[in-house]
Amino acid sequence: MENTTKAIMIGVALFIVIGLVTAVVLVTTIGTDTMRSQDKNLQGVSESVATQIIDNYNNRDITGANVISAIKKFYNKENFLLVVEGNDKYSTKRKNSGGLVISETKAKFNGTLIDNTPDISNLTNVVTAQAKYHSYIIYNNNEDVVLGIYFEKK
After folding, report:
1. Are the beta carbons of 137 and 146 closer than 8 angstroms?
2. Whose CA is closest to 100, among 56, 71, 137, 75?
């Protein structure tokens, strides 16, 4: 009788351990799937921002008010370069090396960026709301990643 009780106790213990391991695997799988789903959502947000930028600022004539609006909208975006005719102080990143090459329809940046703390308090001292500007999308050297917007005063 004593051996039978021990065997039952061992069987119950094994059943509990198997149940716990199954529960841990299930919770881990659900958590991993949730994280992957959130990563895809974040990537979609980045893609939608890039699409919005291309639609609104790709080789367009705009006013200084539009430039001010764009700077206020995008200056706090991580790794986003805003340049107003060679002045990149309104971006979270500044050019460290390299430079911009402006063509008729777009801008390309080849170089490195460094961190910058933007100060938009004197924005109207640099950009005149009534002035006319032309905007270009800044791409990386391979032209497959949107890095920011370049505004050229006309």
Report:
1. yes
2. 137
